[in-house]
Amino acid sequence: MHRPHIRTVAVAVAVATAATGLAGTALALPGAGPDSAAAATSAAAPVVQAARAAAFAHASQTGVGQGDDLRAQDVMLDPEGARHVRFIRTHQGMPVLGGDLVVHLDHGLAYTGVTRAAGHDVEPATTKAKLTPEQAAAKAASVAKGDAGTAHLVVDARGGASALAYQVQVTGSATTESGGSRTVVVDALTGKVRSNTPDSDEFLSPKLIEALRERGETLDPATDNAPLPSGLTAAGSTAVTYPRTVTGSGSSLFVGTVSLTTTQTARTSFLLKDATRYGTETRDAKNKLLENFSKGTKITSTTNKWGNGSVSSRTSAAVDAQYGITKTLDFYKKTFGRKGIANNSKGAQAMVHFGNKIANAFWDPTCNCMLYGDGDGTMFKKPLVALDVTGHELTHGVVEATAKLEPTYVDANGNQFGEPGSLNESLADIFGSNVEFYANNPKNPPNYLIGEKLGLAQKFLRRLDHPSLDKLEGTIDYWSASTYYTEVHAGSGVSSHAYYLLAEGSGKKTIGGVAYNSPTYGGLSVKGIGRAKATAIFYRALTRYMVSTTDFHDARVATLKAAKDLYGASSTEYKTVDRAWAAVNVTAANTPADRH
Ligand SMILES: [Zn+2]
């Protein structure tokens, strides 16, 4: 939020090179900045060149044409030989919203196909605006109720047609709970507002908060108050140089006593910063709506013991935050070789005690940080720092750095709608659950439930095995023609359910002490292939075969391609992917006519 953030023009090249492992993306090189720099210095250069040339040479398939310019955002070299380059597009120098595409090449750099966000030609009818930038900025400021930045011309190729438009970032938006920023796109010919989207991802949607208010539900999560074991602090010793990396002990709100990698800056001075995870650090926003991480107050200790397991210490919430973020980073690195949220070897920062009585948590891609509110003291009584909240929100950061799935529509309250947005929420839940499985903390037993630590009356916020057991957001189990117009958290059930069925299969089972009974469309029975393989397939699909407009039927195709890459087209894994989607009513036969 807060600082200029234009999703579609951010360029960070992350190069993934050949690797072993299920997902095949280990050994990523650090992001090397703009594509030209990466091209000059890495093995990716010939791949990017070949992919760009192929995009123009196969214009009828890729939709890339005259006046278009492609900048590489991601280069993936699969161990099986395939190469994939994710491009963002400009047209006559203007960013193209919804113009993203992934070009696929074989081992010999020959073109094998494309995954593209816009199915149509992105060239607008005219490149001459009728509105001035000032008029567009004024319009944006009035709809988002805040301070408009400079209006920039873009091509808006979302929604099945192209138009010349202005993109404006509006900060201090009174229409956003946290006073954050919004990106407003205004038609440059008619002045119509084409979209008005909050820049940061909120864990709890405005619709859900309203539902809880209507029910008069108050949430007081049970936190853990395990005492600190003694003797876990780093021993002071002679002849050491500072700063140095040490191991401390944190007493959290939700995950018990945990080990934290911290920085010792002097003999009795420690900082909640982890040099082994790209300098990931948690700070205190001191209950302000802080503009950026550098203004946060550093969290220090004289003992290397952090927090006291209760909100009476401001540091306890910071322990949960730092633990959750480092476990999320470790999950992505150990499982997929992903180095940091954007795969650019940068840490993910956090600020706890964000704002005054904010009952939400946010991923802010501009500041590259998590912002955690303390709860509003009435409905939500504790800071929103639970592990799966962090795993969910940071996965939005991963999606932002890869497929950039976008909602198709955002209402005036900030509720988002549409299948690509639903898929984004679903992936955040899927990988958020996987962070719990990875951390495997007995105080926070892993499961396929989301938000089970929030203290909700229904015991969870969402669940992957049988999404419609959620009565708060009205999450759905199966796809139907109306899913395209469903609120994104409610819609997330379709692919979350498909993922669960792929991993664990249909019917009754108890996993880690939790009883599941996953239903299927038409009573189809599905035998799961296991969580590790299901997760590998979804991750590969996200990074290789999804773009900003991917809907559930596209996601089916993307996961089938991923399964084919990893296990072969005649494998049980491939067939189970097909069956899992059929079990949520997503099939080749009921694919809607192209909406893009
Ligand atoms: Zn979300």
From TrEMBL:
PepSY domain: residues covered: 130-194
UniProt xrefs under InterPro entries: FTP_domain, PepSY, Peptidase_M4, Peptidase_M4/M1_CTD_sf, Peptidase_M4_C_domain, Peptidase_M4_domain, Zinc_Metalloprotease_M4
A Gene Ontology BP annotation from the UniProt entry: proteolysis
Key words of the record: Hydrolase, Metal-binding, Metalloprotease, Protease, Secreted, Signal, Zinc, Zymogen
Domain FTP: 68-106
Enzyme Commission code: 3.4.24.-
Subcellular location: Secreted
One cellular component term from this protein's GO annotations in UniProt: extracellular region
Residues making up the signal peptide according to the UniProt record: 1-28
Record flagged with keyword Signal: yes
Record-annotated Peptidase M4 domain positions: 247-400
Active-site positions on this chain: E393, H489 (proton donor)
GO terms, molecular function: metal ion binding; metalloendopeptidase activity
Chief place of localization: secreted
The keyword Hydrolase belongs to this UniProt entry's keyword annotation: yes
Cofactor: Zn(2+)
Top-level taxonomic group: Bacteria
Peptidase M4 C-terminal domain span: 417-586
Function recorded in the entry: Extracellular zinc metalloprotease.
Family: Belongs to the peptidase M4 family.
Protein name (database record): Neutral metalloproteinase
Lineage, uppermost ranks: Bacteria, Bacillati, Actinomycetota, Actinomycetes, Kitasatosporales
